[in-house]
Amino acid sequence: MTPSKNNSPLSGADQTIARKYNRAQILNRLRLQGALSRADLAKQTGLTRSTISRIVDELSAEKLVHEIAASQNDRGRPGILLSLNPKGGAAIGLEIGVHFISILLTDFFCTPIWQERAVLENTTAWVDYIHKAEEMIRRAVTIAEQANLPLKGIGVAIWGMVDFNKRVIHFAPNLKWRDVPLEAKWTDLFHVPVYVENDANAAALGEYYFGAGKEIEDFIYLSMDIGIGSGIISKGRLFRGASGYAGEIGHITIDPNGEKCSCGRVGCLETKAGRNVIVRRYQDLSKESDITLEKIIQRGQAGDPIARRIFFEVGEALGTGIGSAINLFNPKGIILGWSLGQAFNQLLPGMESSLQKSCLPDLRNSLAIIPSMNGESDALFGSIALVLDEIIREAI
Question: pTM for the whole thing?
């Protein structure tokens, strides 16, 4: 943060922004690199030693960082190393999907402490989900209190569209929810910050913090379950769009004469790719009714021609859907979420074939397509990342 051209001192607002930015730089360096000395932090951030010392004192007082060991500095003298403090706090993350709720409690170092999954098979009424989730959150809060970990926030990854401005779950087509004010309700109930995000957006952030996107500043995360979703990371930040709906790639029209989608429109990508689409297509071609996606993936890996054909076709549809996004955003990578990642080698040929037709050559040639590292828990770890991101984000 530099002074103005007339060399006037920074205003109070500017000083606050600079302070937040500098705190974020220090926390993020410790997150990425582990233990560092004050001298290391000064070199890597460009901040003065006095600024480093002042901010580290603040963070130590808040128990977000702590001194962990001595090291030899360049003069041969013992120096103190700093690290994020696992005891600095706790975060609760939830994933709310069709007929299930998963919850994860971590410390400030993002080490899992407690995890649970509940199944709600006979309802999509949002009040039933909320009541069950609140029971689970209360258990997590109790466990955090017993471990003497102050709760820093609750992150929620939801299978639906979240209006980032109004702070409501605007539309979750597969859950049949509309305009659910979850964030406000839980903020009042649990007295901590609550962050609600679309599941693919949350998973993208989780991959950036904890997974395959950790060293990538610009990528598109692609998820496939009942529907198709994507999250966009641009310059290390989640790109939400004007209202928070960016990344709804599952509802791009790729077949105007196709099937009706759960959103009410016709020919969306979700009608050509997704867990249910693959299973239904395999049932139709094989005349086998009792089959799961996992079995189809296993059969495809073993060379089953029906499975291979379906995954090639689904890969083509996915390539068509994301081709325009690649041309628009010029990402460095495409990260395939858990279900897609399981079938990575079977989907890739179809995606490659389609992308060669839909992408500008220079953009495709510089693009890496990789599976996620967080597996089935990608959105759940993403919900934890929502809390962490609010604390140590670099940009203001």
Answer: 0.86
